[in-house]
Amino acid sequence: MNMKKILYSILIASSMLTMNSCINDLNTLPLNETDKTADQAYDGTLLSYEKGLAYIYGSFSLVSQNDPGSSDIAVPDAGQSDLMRQYMILNEASADALKCIWGDSYMTGIQFNTWTAADNEAIIAVYTRCMVSVTRANEFLVKTDGVSVEGVSQLRAEARCLRAFAYYLLLDLYGNPPFATEENIGGEAPSQIGRPALFDWVESELKALLASDSDLPARGQVAYPRVSKGVAQALLARLYLNAEVYTGTARWEDAKNAAKATIDMGYSLCSNYEELFLQDNGENANSLNELIFAIAYDRDRTQSWGGTTHLVSGAMYDAASQAVAAELGMPEGSLVNRERWNGYHVSAEYVENNFELQGVDWKRKDIGYDRATSDRRAFLYNVGHTKEFDKASTQSGWVCWKYTSRDSKGNLYSSDDYSKFSSADSPVIRLAEMYMIYAEAQARLDGGITTDATAMNYVKELRTRAGLDMPSSINLDFILKERACEFMWEGQRRTDLIRYGYYTAMSFPWPYKGNIPDGKVALENWRSVYPIIQTEINENPNLVQNPGY
Predict the structure, then answer these.
(1) How far apart are CA 413 and CA 423, in angstroms?
(2) Over 70: is that where the pLDDT of 66 sits?
């Protein structure tokens, strides 16, 4: 049994370990009388502490301790309470990369940039899941403090790394969330420390985890999907890339150096871009070479209507799925998606502004363009669609099949023998991102355009994998377009546009930005961060709402 399956087994076994808490007071209570508290569950063995750590890992992928149709947080639809699903929605649908025709109020609020501080499921889910992760990590650190069992010190380091990741998400999305560490458990309700101070804390925590005396394992010393110093180093690079947004002070040199330090840890690009998103991406050695950090999903053991299930199922419909299967040479009548919800779309503007496609014709009868001569990162279909995205039409703009029900061996997980859930792990940080961080940081250090040999070579590797030629120099807008293609639907677009100053600018429109059909409108600057959820503001007198809400 590989480490991913071991972790799944621990996750299931850890359902006996209940450390649920009120975010405000951080006290821990069982959900029901049959659950064990942390004091009861830890029996002094390493396995019991591993179960506690798995409970923290599980907060990033599971929606409850029961089944995928039940949510343990205050979001009515369990699938819409999944952290990675709603993290992707907050970062992609609020910008130009993803549009949706579903009438769900949370989705319309996000994609039309009209959300408020009250009752948006996506905002509630990501905020609450992140705070639960922090709380579970804090509780774990308290319960393992001073424990001399061999191996526990490494588990504590992993818990700290996961907590730093949760705080990074809160920093990026919510700006100034409540801040608490293990020292606050049982004390008064947490207060805010401000975005720059939270940045400083995440930075210091990651640097401590990277120190030579840290117990966080080096890359390769712990099996996937557990965190290592590679994750801490890569997260530090991402933190520095956006430092000017978070603190007002740019850290380009630090971003470049942190990215290079990650690259030098021995990761390598997956030779086939598509394999990074297939059903066995967490077992396939080729994709594992590139994945630095991913959230694991499994259709048998960690089922979720969120995760990558919504990406596999959300965009396609029968005719599109069959056409893509035919394009891939599959038997007649094959479908590349187990379910086809037909909701997620990509605007023609996003495709035209970023992807280098050949032979695009909205009247073609295959998939709408010549895939063999186009950017290999494009997984698109438009046949029978209107070019202009219509928020009420199931056949407008493009649909995306970056995530499907296939694996790297050609198996199609679409028969009745398989669950409807996806087993594809959700990529969070890849080596390709470190290449792009290095290139962007170098370009910014060079005044907006660079011919630096190292930066150029990193981008060339990605362009070569995509089947594209390399220009003689690269500028910031070129890099942004590369990121739009390389990381589409991976949860980075909003952050990128904010860093570039484009997110709220009238000069950077997209369909239905600000609920205007042509998107030629300036958003309020305060929409660059989401609100602290209103129930938190109401219940914790120490908190102040973000400006604008």
Answers:
(1) 9
(2) no
